Amino acid sequence: MRIVRICLLFAVAFLQAEMLRAQEMTHLFGPEDAPRRLVIRSTTDTDVFAGVVEAFLAERPGVSVLYEQWGSNDLYGLTSKDCRSGEVGADVVISSGVHQMVKLVNDACAAKYQSALTRALPQALRWRDEVWGITREPAVIVYNRSGVPPADVPRTRFDLLDLLRPEDSPYAGKVATYDIEASGLGYLFAFMDSQEASTFGALLESLGRTGADATCCSAEIIEGVATGKYLLAYNVLGSYAEGLAREDDRIGIVLPQDYTLVLSRALMIPKQAGNMSDARAFLDFLLSQQGRTELRQALLIAPGLDGDSADAGEGISETALRPIGLSPSLLVALDRQKRDQFIRLWRGAFPGP
Amino acid sequence: MRLLLVEDTLDVAEAVIIRLERSGIACDLARTVEEARGYLEAQPYDVIVLDINLPDGLGTDLLRDMRAKGDRTPVMMLTAQFSVDDRVSTLNLGADDYLVKPFDQRELEARVRALYRREQGDKGNEITLGTLTFNPTAKVLRKEGVPVTLTRREFSLLELLIRNRGSVMSKDRLYEGLFSFNDAEVGLNAIELYIGRLRKKLAGSKVHIETLRGLGYKLDVDA
Amino acid sequence: MSLTARVALAVGSLLLIGGVVVSLAAFAYGREAARETYDRLLVGAANAIAASITIVDGAPVVDLPMSAFELLALAPDDRIAYRVVGVNGETLTGYDDLALPDKRGRGDTSFFNASFFGEPARYAVVTRRFAERSLNGTVHVIVGQTLLARNALALDITRNVLFGLIISGTLLLLLAVLVVRSALKPLARIGEAFARRDPHDLTPMDTKVPREAAVMIQALNGFMARLDRQFSSMQNLISDTAHQLRTPVAALRAQADLAAEEADEDRRRAIVERIHRRSVSLGELLDQMLSRALVLHRSDSARREVVDLRDVALEVLESGDLQVLAPETDIQLDIGDLPVPVLADSPSLCEAAKNLLTNAVRYGRGPVRLGVSRDGETASLWVEDQGEGPPEAVQNSLGERFVRSAASDGKSAGLGLSIAKSVAEAFNGRLAFQKGQPSGSRVVLVFPLVEGVS
């Protein structure tokens, strides 16, 4: 009994720590005493999104934005809980875990909204007029420019497999990717890979065999690549990588040419949102020309991937782009048995800490 | 006898008056409907001879008014109209007899006298059967007060049947009854046709003539 | 209301009623079709899920296939509910609170309706039986979907049908109006032709028109022909009258003039006597002419009915005129005990018979017999006297409209005969002259006997 109690205590302590860590940052934009407040819960880093929020507030003096930054799994859990309890939480939820957002919509947690701008979105980027894709971010391979000779830079997943194949591959143990249990986004990318191509099995096997590292966060991975801790990182969210690569020439970025997953961060307005009108205004702003420009500046819409031009980034062909559409079929990714099996499969390669 | 002639054609009127006065009938002449009304108000007449077309109206209108007032003075219509329908309709209006112009003076006098007789006839002899009144003296049959024109033979036949009403009259007996007329030989077969004519004329009254095949005819009044 | 409007209204209301019926049917069909289509989708997805179940370590494991959900995503905006229920009723995966319905149809597949997070939804249940060493029992797969796509499809089908209906209905209506317009065109043409016609033009119209209108035209032509006959007989009457009356009136006037100037009392009386005779015969002539006009008129206009010639004979005998005309003449009636039916107009026959009898009484020699007889197919009404009969010349000139001699000598035997002849011909009969039986002469009106009438 004693042991059980101690275990419970530990568990509670751990959970609290998890909660604290989950809500990484809260930032208030706009005047503190503004009559209207918009609560945004997002998985996007505050400083990445700041420009967009400020641009939104620039013409709305009476509005302030409370920006809460969350991990995708926690955000999903919290939003789902609010939805069930009816508690008023966020006015806008933005997550890179689009499968989780789709699930929230399927569970009737979202409010409907239509405007000329939402209707202009392609069918794949909206579902039921309750969730919308607002960004275009490729999943990329990041490499260390000094550690990886130009000839070795993998252009495709097959290149990556080839690099890892030799017994004495210099890249063994030097490849990183998301820990799919810790990162909702990582899970999604991996899951989409598993659906997309047969290379996934081989890739997983190679990564496992060479002792690749799985970690939680984009920043950590890219930082590792920059310092040379890792030579290659697979399936890194392009927006972060691009942002860091611009300031740090140690980092190189490749869009896999066999196919490139493109993520559109999903936005939904919870049905019990307290400030529905500003939430809608914010959505329309993001979809407007101005909002898209801001998103582009924040690198959340990757160059050439906003659908405005056929010129895909770094010469990648249009057909190689695999946008992750907002479709109910993403529910599969969240199916508990599917998830268990998938994680079990993945854990086979990455035994974890 | 006092007679009122309503006639606007002076030639005809004069001739008629001279003729009738010669045989002892006192005549007054009215040349318009208006004048006729004046005469009728002033004194009663035994017979009225009435032309249809008059300068200020129709003789039939005067007739209708008289009958409406309950005046039953016998009226003889003079008509220049030809068709059968017109002749019948004047009778329906309440005229007692009619003559078509041009007519024979002798005929007019005979008919006027018949009308007079009919009116003077012994009402005691009158037989009423249903809606019919049969006066053998005046030789007149009325159905609901309207005179029914019968030829002499028809009248005699009806008289025979009425006098023997309720009993069967054989064809032969009826024929013998008619045989007294020696002006025309009509034959036994005509009896059936005369019965037919009588039936048509009695239609609508409560009197009917029954045919008993092989036996003869029987006149009965409906209960 | 015009015929076009009537037809348009009739077709319109027919279309409206039909439209309502078809709309209801279309809606029912649309719903049914949508239901079937999307039920198939549900079953397909459920089957795919059921097929993905494997037994691992004695427990069923669902490897949810993406394809199943992609199938369901064909209804792009509908939410998806699913649950896989294990052999003991436990949830293997999916939404825990999706309950299996109490009553389910037999077989491996069934459907039910229930709400899903407050939105109406349709569910399919598919069962899969396992009979393995480690697991024995039935696993149920429930897959459900909200109804947006179904309703949209049903509405779409209905709308398409309605659209077609409205288009075809409008076309039909227009067509009906056009057809009626063109069908009625001949009527307008006929009307125009009539309007343009000279008022005295009674010639037949052109019957080259549609059959339906031809009936009308034929009736009109028949009517005009009758009108034409009556018109011309009226004209004949007027011209006859003018001719026939002028002569006796001239004679009367001459005699009257003579009488006025005559001093000798005896001779004057003789003249007056002649004036009287003339005027009497003038009256008779007038009667006959009018009678002829009447006969002509009736023979064309009166309805034909079955007439017993014996009744006609009796009517003539009873009419009373003869007693006045010739009280001294003895007339015998000769009729049988069988009816002698003919198809004719009774007053016309009476006029004809009266004329024959009058002729016989006036110009023939007594005794006069009026008779009716039937002989095989024919019926006869005859007048017999002991004289010679009408002169040959009169007999031959009966076809002419009038007989001059009638007017000039104040006698009108010919006119009477011509009336009788007209009547006979008007009713499919003829006028014949025969020897008397046993002596004398006979004028006979012969008609076809009407069969089957007793």
UniProtKB/TrEMBL annotation, chain A:
Gene Ontology CC terms, in alphabetical order: outer membrane-bounded periplasmic space
UniProt signal peptide: 1-22
Tree of life domain: Bacteria
One Pfam family from the record: SBP_bac_6
Keywords: Signal
Keyword Transferase: no
Protein name: ABC transporter substrate-binding protein
Organism: Roseibium aggregatum
Taxonomic lineage of the native organism: Bacteria, Pseudomonadati, Pseudomonadota, Alphaproteobacteria, Hyphomicrobiales
UniProtKB/TrEMBL annotation, chain B:
Keywords: DNA-binding, Phosphoprotein, Transcription, Transcription regulation
InterPro entries: CheY-like_superfamily (IPR011006), OmpR/PhoB-type_DNA-bd (IPR001867), Sig_transdc_resp-reg_receiver (IPR001789), WalR-like (IPR039420), WH-like_DNA-bd_sf (IPR036388)
Residue ranges of every copy of the OmpR/PhoB-type domain listed in the record: 124-221
One Pfam family linked to the record: Response_reg
DNA-binding region, residues: 124-221
Keyword DNA-binding part of the UniProt annotation: yes
CDD domains from the UniProt entry: trans_reg_C
4-aspartylphosphate modifications at: 51
Domain Response regulatory: residue ranges: 2-116
SMART domains attached to this UniProt entry: REC, Trans_reg_C
Stated name of the protein: Response regulator transcription factor
Molecular functions (GO terms): phosphorelay response regulator activity; transcription cis-regulatory region binding
